[in-house]
Specification:
Elements (H helix, E strand, L loop, with lengths): L13 H10 L3 H18 L10 H7 L6 H10 L9 E3 L5 E3 L2 H29 L14 H24 L10 H10 L5 H14 L3 H13 L5 H15 L4 H27 L16 H6 L1
Antiparallel strand pairs: 1-2
Helix pairs in contact: 1-2, 3-4, 5-10, 7-9, 8-10, 9-10
InterPro entries: DnaB/C_C (IPR006343)
Protein name: DnaB/C C-terminal domain-containing protein
Family: Belongs to the DnaB/DnaD family.
């Protein structure tokens, strides 16, 4: 059964209350629409990218009965001070669920890995077990079939040991450069659990130590209560968006900030636009002269 993290502070988060206010709905309704959208995305947008779906599709996924465009705009604009809302428009134009990797991306990856593992298992079973094995008149399996099975066993043995050699050795203690930087900067140690979580993201996305340090710098600059968790969320988004180096991330952040400024400017210009002046037709006065003459 698919599931997604649901944090208890969602009900009092400023983005949630702002979303409810923008849509003119209650807070429980806003929370319900968000969860319905997230549950739908687990099956139909597992990477968090909604670019292939229009506003009507997204509103229907969240079971929102109002204006679909207003729903998407509210999900985009419920952040504060230029920060992303529950949805985010990337510089390349893609519409994505904000921080999707942090909450559901790992589950989606595990599901893909499980599916691939099952496919490999089925292929090995099919390849190593011919359905119709003909035997010789003496009841023996032909030499060609025995050689085929032997080759498969040798391949599996070699493949297993090759992967075993590729696994990084367990050093026992955090040893990467970013851990030293963090401990010197904050005078706090990195727990083994957090070290493993961040290095797992590094290995999965090919992320450099410099990018990890940049994420930690951003977390400290934003005065995050838990800089490591904050940085881990940034790195998860980097994996989602294909960013591997500090330079790529900084360029992406500049483009995102520029796109957000353009969006805010467009909203302001729309609000201050002068209303259309409608032509007012004078009301024709009723002529009572006929009644006076009749009297």
């Amino acid at each position: 059964m698919a599931w997604i993290e649901s944090h208890q502070d969602l009900a009092r988060h400023p983005k949630t209350t702002r979303l409810a206010r923008l849509l003119g709905i209650s807070l429980p309704q806003a929370i319900g629409h968000l969860h319905l959208l997230w549950w739908w995305a687990l099956d139909f947008a597992p990477d968090g990218d909604l670019s292939g779906w229009d506003a009507a599709d997204i509103a229907a996924a969240a079971h929102y009965d109002g204006d679909p465009e207003a729903f998407v705009d509210s999900l985009l604009g419920c952040g504060r001070d230029g920060q992303a809302g529950f949805l985010e428009r990337l510089p390349d134009g893609r519409l994505v669920i904000h921080d999707w990797y942090e909450y559901a991306g790992k589950y989606a990856e595990r599901r893909q890995q499980d599916a691939e593992r099952k496919r490999r298992s089925r292929r090995r079973t099919t390849d190593s077990s011919p359905s119709d094995v003909q035997r010789t008149s003496g009841g023996q399996i032909p030499e060609s079939v025995r050689n085929h099975n032997q080759n498969l066993n040798q391949y599996d043995h070699h493949h297993h040991h090759a992967h075993a050699r590729e696994e990084p050795a367990d050093s026992g203690q955090p040893s990467q450069r970013w851990t030293d930087w963090y401990e010197q900067r904050t005078a706090c140690s990195v727990s083994r659990t957090m070290y493993e979580a961040i290095t797992e993201i590094q290995h999965r996305g090919g992320i450099t130590d410099d990018l990890v340090i940049a994420a930690l710098e951003q977390a400290i600059a934003d005065r995050a209560r838990d800089p490591l968790t904050y940085a881990k969320r940034i790195l998860g988004n980097c994996v989602l968006y294909g960013l591997r180096t500090r330079e790529e991330w900084e360029a992406w952040e500049r483009e995102r900030a520029s796109a957000e400024e353009e969006r805010k400017l467009a909203v302001v210009q729309h609000r201050i636009r002068a209303p259309t002046v409608r032509e007012v037709h004078p009301i024709n006065e009723f002529d009572f002269s006929d009644f006076d003459d009749a009297g």
